[in-house]
Amino acid sequence: MTAMPPARGCGNAPVLKERGQREVFCGLTGIIWLHRKMQDAFFLVVGSRTCAHLLQSAAGVMIFAEPRFATAILEETDLAGLADAQDELDREVARLLSRRPDIRQLFLVGSCPSEVIKLDLGKAAERLSARHAPHVRVLNYSGSGIETTFTEGEDACLAAMVPALPKTQARELLLVGALPDVVEDQALALLDGLGIGPVRCLPARRADDIPAIGPETVFALTQPFLGETHAALIRHGARHIAAPMPFGEEGTTAWLAAIAREFGVDAERFEAVTAAPRARARKAVEAATRTLSGKRIFFFPDSQLEIPLARFLTRECGMEAVEVGQPFIHSEIAGPDLALLPEGPVISEGQDVDRQIDRAREARADLTVCGLGLANPLEAEGLTTKWAIELVFTPVHFYEQAGDLAELFARPLRRRAALKLEAAE
To answer: Which helix (H) or strand (E) holds 45?
Structure first.
């Protein structure tokens, strides 16, 4: 029931630690998927017009047209500390809740550190939560690009929820990480087939389904970028089930196997439940593998998905990883995937973007995975690129999405080959 590690994996590989200019989205962008996941939550971004424009552009809609997030814009006098922004925030929240009685959770999201916006959103959340309890719970976290990278916005949001979770003595499994509902349903169906339960999810789709935690809670991460949430859950008594991330057939099987061992599921039942979806996943990946096998790939640090994706692409799709960069490497979370990643690539943490661009130019890998800001310039230099952001917004977890995940990497290589053929004609 376990994935066999390579003879020499990357578990003990040296890590190139870089600290310099970064080229990543800020954590505010996590709101775009979080507000769709939590159906009775609202995200009020406290920040500048620049932040409003960012969310408008990233979401592809007018900021006030989205039903469950908006921006409370601080003017120049507020940023200079000359206005009583606390009173204004209280009025805006009161108006919002009077218009939207369906809101059960309200997140105050700082777009800048508190010393910049001159507003302590933590104290504001405590005050507003007491005022509007029990119908509405008000929490806060930072989505500042100074303090968070792209996917750390979700991590900060979930970590802020943990201290307010109710307590329980029941033995339960908690799945941690925002997944599209259809993917979450697939995971829950697999676990139910294995006889594992009760199973709760963080975040829950609705406030009434919010999970409880306690000393008998065990949790499995479905996203590799949840370091702060991981720490918060452990501080509150829960225990982590370490496992590779559920990407591809091998990763999903290893993830399920780790949970199955925790709950004493026998090998025969595990095989009966997973055999058919494992076969479907392997078959679905085969078509893309014909394009990917033997190709070299270079990862810029962006989404925190880089290490498990490199494991999937090298072990299941036959690719060779040249460099695998990740914004942060949390040893307990990334360790199981690093142990399976075949030895060879440079493993880098953090970023000095100019130096990494030089390494990417020198490597000239067949496919370079990077952020939006780097993709077009690298394409202009003749490199084939893949947008890292697409890997976060596309359903890619578990067996039924394994083929789609592989296709996301095969597609740009096919496009490049077609363009070369067209140019030759």
So the answer is: strand 41-47
